[in-house]
User: What shape does this take?
Amino acid sequence: MTENISMPTKYDPQSIEAGRYEWWLQGKFFEAQPESGKEPYSIVIPPPNVTGKLHLGHAWDTALQDILTRMKRMQGYDALWLPGMDHAGIATQAKVEAKLREDDITRYDLGREKFLEKTWEWKEEYAGHIRQQWAKLGLALDYSRERFTLDEGLSDAVKTVFVQLYEKGLIYRGERIINWDPAAKTALSDIEVIYQDVQGAFYHMKYPLADGSGYVEVATTRPETMLGDSGVAVHPKDERYQHLIGKTVILPIVGREIPIVADDYVDMEFGTGVVKMTPAHDPNDFEVGNRHNLERILVMNEDGTMNELAGKYNGMDRFECRKQIVADLQEAGVLINIEEHMHSVGHSERSGAVVEPYLSAQWFVKMQPLADASLALQQDEEGKVDFVPSRFENTYSRWMENIRDWCISRQLWWGHQIPAWYHNETGEIYVGKEAPTDAENWTQDEDVLDTWFSSALWPFSTMGWPDEANEEYQRYYPTSTLVTGYDIIFFWVSRMIFQGIEFTGQRPFKNVLIHGLVRDGEGHKMSKSLGNGVDPMDVIEKYGADSLRYFLATGSSPGQDLRYTTEKVESVWNFANKIWNASRFALMNMDGMTYDEIDLTGEKSVADKWILTRLNETIERVTSLAERYEFGEVGRELYNFIWDDFCSWYIEMAKLPMNGDDEAAKKTTRSILAYVLDQTMRLLHPFMPFITEEIWQHLPHEGESITVAAWPTVRTDLHFADEADNMKLLMDIIRSVRNIRAEVNTPMSKKVPLFISAKDAATVIVLEANKAYLEKFCNPESLTIGEGLDAPDQSMTAVVTGAELFLPLVGLINLEEEIARLEKELEKWAKEVKLVTGKLSNEKFVSKAPEALVNAEREKLADYEDKHAVVLKRLEELKNM
Assistant: This one.
């Protein structure tokens, strides 16, 4: 039992939040978590890469997961939230190499072992930064279980998976055209390539026939690759070229004789119907080349420069080579024309470099069997992965249906080194978790695995797999919920699913909650190039973590993008400040009350019964909506209850008994204030953990922390439907009186006679019993309550459910001046209605303007028509007086 102490006057999120970091970092809530018969609820945090900086998208992920974990823990579940980090091979190695370059050192100067030592040092430093940012976000993580994708346990899981897939024939090594990043000098998977529209050109060239009988015209966007051409292709049914099939052409500049082949791949309708074949630099040409035994001529180095097979262009950058070849083609008289062409060009997601289709020996995962198993799982309603919103299941399924083999090898040093060895003499390949026994005769593959290969195992490798007898694996796998953005469904979600099915026989998680992207106020995606990114730590520094978390969690519905504006975060800060001030008032009136002194059995006013009923309704709605991940609606419910019901109405009404002489009424009011505020803080806690913990600690309470307090439940003994309806009537009357006063510019301080005509005798009894509230909040000069009252002369009227109100206007306004003012206002709204009606009558505007703009104009019209009608009615009332 804890006695409340005074709260600081001012809401200061930085001061409040600083005091909670250490307790949460130590995971005290897990120690205090009670034993429960409820099923486990487990979440694994999407591991951020160890580049040291969390972005708003990751803050969004983690805020939603923290909300779920805190709520489930309070509901009595055995809740596990396991944190971790991703080694992020390409990104991390690039950062470390950039740091080394500052001292004119390369990784090759250090050698692999020393370079990895430097990278581990870098990882330790920046992992600390991430933990600090997690703490600032207020994440209730179990740091005792923290994992890293390169730690010993996960490395064992990665090796096990690689070996088993290899033994099943699902991993193979082969020479294929892959996506090559010349800047990072590594292969990329298809989903690590970002396509951007770039202004380029089609270069049309003559390829002379070797027999001197003419030429064929070909076109390319990459003339530098022509140096590796080993054939040209036409469609076998193209009548224009059937007589040329089997002949040869002379490759311009190079002078090499190459064949003309027939292949169905060629589109007769596109261009000239003749396509140059560069099997070492184009994936489609590679396949055609395989069918026709065309030579694979690789003319580029790994860094994007031309190699010795490029002849006189050897050593030139690929784009400089392009310019020089075009000039040489013009000089040779074989360049027909240059046609400007906007086309989609692949760029490396990590380095930004233009990706080069490149012939290379790499390791691949054969995806079709894994994809088929994943798609089959989704047909099982009980065992499938449920996507929220459900439409993203189609996004996932379409990608799986069109899957290509996954290139998993990367030409890096930082990562899981591929567990494959080559015999120094025979070239034989050995794959295993450990090196061959005669290791001196074998050399391990120098490449590492794609970072997503280890991340794909995250839900079960972090639980101790491949030891399936592990207690945590048995208890917490499959995990309950994954929260992530739709932009990594292909990168991560899909891979976790097919690896989970393959190695555990189960889905890796029951639910996937998908959110959108964080965009700026104009709707643009946040990016470094646009300079519109926002550092969540800067937002926390100014407005506190609670404001940021609440905004991120409640600012959109599942699957939708979120627009970030400072004004929206400020409005949340104002909400938190309102909560703080209301709590201070409540605490000041609790007068040292302890937890065991809270008594809800005393005589209750209509306001007491109403707020308790509204609390029950809010508990029910918030719990139901949160279970469906409708956090935007949860936010609306909480805001309305806290700001409107509790702060604006109940606290004001509670001042009547608190300022009175009835000690029993004071005790009941204090108890209800304490109870409602306690339950409200619990509901709000997952969203705003810092302020709710601080307020709860000052309230009369039991237990060490609100983090492990029980989640509120509906109490039927504190539900009063009839009294709640009576309270709504009182509130409607008070609102109507205030609105009428505002319409006639009469301040609340000026007393006005008020007549209330009730619909029946029962309503009269209710109003008479609660006359004190009407006198306090309507400030009438006199209050007359009766059944079937007639309206006094020159009265403004209002109708509410169950009663009609009359406020005599004599002496309050100058009728002529008010009528003149309203006539001007009526004219203004008439003009607005005419203007918008004219715009919406224009068929061109309605058919061509964006739908959102047309709908906005329609909403304007409805608003202006309503205002016109209200003013017109008021004018008629005044003119008839």
